[in-house]
Amino acid sequence: MDVFTTQSSLIFNDTNITCPMPLLWPKEMVDSRRPRLIVFMIAIFTHTVFWLQLAFCPSVRQKSMQWIYAYLVTDIFLLARFIITYIVRTTTTECEPSPAWVIFICYFDAIFDNYFNVLEVYILLALNICRYVQIAYNRNVYEVHKSCLVFAHLGIYSFTLISLVIQFVLGWCQIYVIFRDSCQVIYTNLYIQIFNIATAFAIPIFLNVIVIYMSARHIRLASTLQKATHVSAREKYNRSLVIQFLVFYTIWVALWAPNVILYQISGGGNLTSIFRLLNFIEIALDPIILAALDVRFCQAWQKWWKYAKVYIFQHGPNPGKVQPTTTRFNTLSIKTPQLRTTVF
Fold first, then answer.
1. Which residues are paired to 173 by β-bridges?
2. Is residue 164 helix, strand or coil?
3. How many CB atoms lie within 10 A of CB 306?
4. Which of 96, 172, 265, 287 could hold 167 in an S-S bridge, CB 3.0 to 4.6 Å?
5. What is the residue-wise DSSP string for 23-89?
């Protein structure tokens, strides 16, 4: 806590401004974040459409998609982190806000982003491993190994958080406050930086590449053995799973990795704005890419599109046909009781 006491005094006392307003962004800081705000609005739209699909389409509410939904939930938290920080930093006009509130905002600003970005890489690794077991062993992991999945979820969320807490408690990293700009994490030695780059980036990425290779190799060997007869529907489906994940993972790494690496080396300046903008573009694209690559989402969209076309065709305006149909219907409804009366 001594570090934060020193940093708090730096914010409030080491300035010659009568009313420093340490949490308020100046105009240039707000302008630098405007592109991220625009991408944030786009991301809100894409995620809203995706989650509405989940709410109204039972076909996409499956246990086998739990890692996809866990991944997209982390996107929601990252979007929430941005808009909360943006609102606080553009509306807080107090000259000297509570030090506890400033410390909380700095923790929130500096740690929240990194925590959920690291969660994403391990969630995708878990998804990839489950798909490999499904491909190589023809086993439904989500039904056979339910307890393992529960421990996997708890382990990913808790161990990542514990790692961050231990680093702060032992003084391996500290919060660096940039006056009226942002709060960043700085590391006290090179070894902890190497450890974080390895655990948050290198190791999970390497493991994902290995699992993708093993899945592709199994499919290639299986298709070679079946060339004499024919390629089964299961092999085609497994091949599509690998291709889908490879496409998504390539786009994701290209947009996600720069921000995470910059965070671990305590970078700043213009690179921070550019790399975080790339990270937000990835968040906005996630629902679109996942929905486009997964056949279950495509089928759900096709069903909704067919339903919409039928509804528009039946209930849409058509002046040329509505009037005659209405007239005939009324005529029949009037004549029918008269005929029945005559017969009676």
1. 187
2. helix
3. 10
4. 172
5. TPPPHHHHHHTHHHHHHHHHHHHHHHHHHHHHHH-GGG--GGGHHHHHHHHHHHHHHHHHHHHHHHH
Could you tell me if 221 and 208 are in contact, meaning their C-beta atoms sit under 8 angstroms apart?
no
Dump pLDDT digits (tens) for 36-60: 999 999 999 999 988 888 877 777 7
Going by the DSSP 8-state scheme, the letter that residue 178 receives in this structure is: E
Closest alpha carbon to 40 in 90, 89, 75: 75
- Whether the Cβ atoms of residue 77 and residue 283 lie closer than 8 Å to each other: no
Match 């592109």 to its residue by tokens.
Answer: 35
- Give the DSSP per-residue string, 276-338: HHHHHHHHHHHHHHHHHH-HHHHHHHHHHHHHHHHHHHHHS--HHHHHHHHHHHHHHHHHHHH
Nearest to 201 by CA among 270, 114, 268, 106: 114
Q: Are 187 and 196 in contact (CB under 8 A)?
A: yes
Query: What is the token pair recorded at 6?
Result: 């020193």
- CA-to-CA dists, residue 45 to 41, 79, 120, 287, 290, angstroms: 6, 12, 21, 10, 15
> Which residues, 6 or more positions from 10, have their beta carbon under 8 angstroms from its beta carbon?
177, 179
Tokens of 323: 């009037």
User: Would you state the pLDDT for residue 154?
Assistant: 96
| Spatial contact of 107 and 88, defined as CB atoms under 8 Å apart | no
Instruction: Retrieve residue 342's tokens.
Output: 């005559």
Q: Tell me whether strands 173-178 and 182-187 are parallel, antiparallel or unpaired.
A: antiparallel
Residues composing the chain? 344
Look at residue 258 and tell me whether its pLDDT is greater than 60.
Answer: yes
Q: What is the pLDDT of residues 100-119, one digit of tens each?
A: 888 899 889 889 988 999 99
Pick 79 or 54 by higher pLDDT: 79
177 has which bridge partners?
183
Say if pTM beats, i.e. exceeds, 0.70: yes
Question: Radius of gyration (Cα) for the chain, nearest Å?
Answer: 28
**Whether the Cβ atoms of residue 160 and residue 199 lie closer than 8 Å to each other:** no
